[in-house]
Fold this protein.
Amino acid sequence: MPSEATTPLLRVTGLRKVFPGLTALDHVNLDVRPGEIVSVVGHNGSGKSTLIKILAGVYTADGGSVETAPGTELHFIHQDLGLIGELTAAENLALMRGEGTESLAPYGAKARSERARELTTRFGIPFDVDIPVQKLTPAQRAIVAISRALDGWSHSANVLFLDEPTESLHRSEVEVLFDAVRALAAEGTGIVFVSHRLNEVLSLSDRIVVLRDGKKVADDPIDDIDETKLVQYITGTDTHESHDRVSTATDEVVLDVRALRGGNVERIDLTLRRGEIVGIAGVLGSGRETVPSLLFGAEPSTAEQFEVAGAPYAKRSPSASLKRGIVFTPGDRARLGVVREMNARENLTLPHLNLLRGALGYMSPRAERTRASEAMVDYDVKPSRSEQRISLFSGGNQQKLVIARALHDQPRELLLDDPTKGVDLGAKAAIYQAFSRGAADGAAVVVSSSDAKELLGICDRVIVMRDGEAVLDLGGDELTEERLLAAGYGLP
């Protein structure tokens, strides 16, 4: 581990960033020295992404300074890696160098491939650089991205930022990537590693920086920190606060699923009761975000058993789910949750047009207006103008419209993916009340969320996903933020 006396390659001092109604970074300091691996961790919304975006030039800071040592450059590898899947590794690397973009600088495929092999083999076992990168393993694609970031360095004394690089990797592939990262650090590169996976952070880091609510709350060498202390830093508490929601759950089982698989979900068992609110927790990529769409039939899935109200449900699809009283609100509200060209009335009534037809089969405009107005009043949507285009409502009120549409017919099951993403605190409170009211009216509710505090506040119990599998089912006094985080991050 580098000495504290070593001159930092990067020094961030007093960094501030303010968005309307939110201080995303509040006087944050960060040093990175040659050969040092520094991990930056924290809850969603802690300020990690804002910090990276300022250093990458995406955002402009509102205060503070960023200094680098003479000749030091900052390089970034983001979670999606930014590779072109149809091109080979050699071609992706050549694009970064601009080869072939000038008519007076022709280049040959042989030289291009040799250069790609030279760049990638420094990180371990050689692989074929002349096949499309989409056919490589996730670990190999990550190495291509690292190689691209390093290509052309005149020295090793630069800083490389890795933002959630292991999200798409299987456990067996993570160590391949980590060997590459350690090799870079041994050459003098400063590494900043951003991850939700605390077990990986603890195994890789020389030093760990913790952000919470935009502030740096810890900056400890690895020898001074363990799993328990790290979780306490992230949550801001060393108590085991128990959960005290008054449940409306009954004994009536409305959904019974065994060995559900699909997408990045390897297995989840789920029994859901009438009036119950069940949370699905886990870091991004754990499978948490996929569970609601699998249950709804929006994505292909298999299951050893899938019963709705005691009846088998084999051929799952959105239309078939709606007929069974199952509704779903997706996490990507703008793309999948609303039709932005339509007004609030049209968005609210679109799934329920059959209920608005008269005796002769014609649509009843009066019935449609009445239904929309009632929903907007019931769920406190503001402004309550049903003819206003939905894109003109705030994000929170758009989400209330989506949930009002889902709950207005008293569904048997309500499936929600990150339902309060991007909404303010006032709208969140109204949305939470809507969930509780829906459960009290008899709906069984499944909420997938990246916010542990949110799940603690609204759920009867929470299922924790990790690496595609349900690893823990917590309820009652066991349902604490510390236990949720530890299970999600793979800590004892």
